[in-house]
Amino acid sequence: MGIVSCLILPHGAMTFDGNPNGGSPTTERVKVISESQRRDCNALFAACSKAAELARATSPDVIVLNTPHGMCLSRAVGVYLNARAKGNAEWNGQWTEFEVDIALDTDLSKKLLDHLLSDGVAAEGITAFTVCEMPLRWGEVIPLYFLQDFTKAGVKVVITSNPRGKMIEGLEALSKTSHLGRSMAKFLGGLDQRILYVVSCDLAHIHETNCQIPLYLPDPRWNMPPASDTALHFDLAVENWVKGVTFSAEHTMGPVKSLEEKQVKWDGAVAKEAAQW
């Protein structure tokens, strides 16, 4: 059957501050946000919930999740090989109440790894703590939180992680990442299971903002550059691609090249685009 639905879900923990059922609005961090920021959080949570609802209609058998902030290798795609994974969305000591505990599809993960290697993709398996659970944090927990109806019903998950460093630079990097997406599509398209393909992916991190809440801003340790209009151009390019206006990641190279210098990750989105075609 192969891929029956694809989602891009954010991994900013502020998403949970729009949770109408999680008790989070009583926390100190939410008491200090403005009414407009509260509405934005509510809209973000509602959009993620709606995306999960749309995916539910496709009745997936397996979830394949790509994360940029998990257990990452230096210059290869990582494939998680533990039998289970668990963790919470902790970010700077907050949002620990949002947890997931999932079963990983070890057999399918091993088959995916073998396929990627045979198809010329730089990939390696990752096993954490032998037979214990693979640890998860915000990059995996936040999107998976919205998919718990599946995982609690027995749907297993395959998790891949992006390299910590770039496998290669410039336009050739697009070619390599697109090859990854096509290779994933080839493998997943040949399966009997119905696959929900999910990318954990934020957009640009350097927009102008009047927010002064440290937890809602990029971590100072990242040494991010000043805000730039380039962030808007990049986000609009991605939005147009999602809407079907732009079908090729290469069309975004103007804004993306400058954003790459600002440490913005977008490998997952490019791989997903290639997988679709």
List the helices and strands and how they pair.
Layout: E1 2-9, H1 28-31, H2 35-56, E2 62-67, E3 77-80, E4 84-88, E5 99-103, H3 106-118, E6 123-126, E7 134-136, H4 138-145, H5 148-151, E8 156-161, H6 170-189, E9 194-200, H7 230-243, H8 253-260, H9 267-276
Parallel strand pairs: 1-9, 2-8, 2-9, 3-6, 4-7
Antiparallel strand pairs: 3-8, 4-5
Helix pairs in contact: 6-9, 7-8
Description:
The protein has 277 residues and is of the alpha/beta class. Helix 6 packs across helix 9. The longest helix has 22 residues. The protein is globular. The relative contact order is 0.19.
Query: What is the number of beta strands?
Result: 9
The proportion of residues in beta strands is 15-25%
Distance between the termini: 16 Å
- Give the strand line-up of the largest sheet: 1-9-2-8-3-6
Enumerate the spans where pLDDT stays under 50 for 5 or more consecutive residues.
258-266
Helix percent reads 25-40%
Number of helices: 9
Quickly list its features:
alpha/beta, 3-stranded mixed sheet, 9 helices, 6-stranded mixed sheet, 37% helix, 277 residues
Quick overview:
By secondary structure, the protein is of the alpha/beta class. It is built from 9 helices and 9 strands.
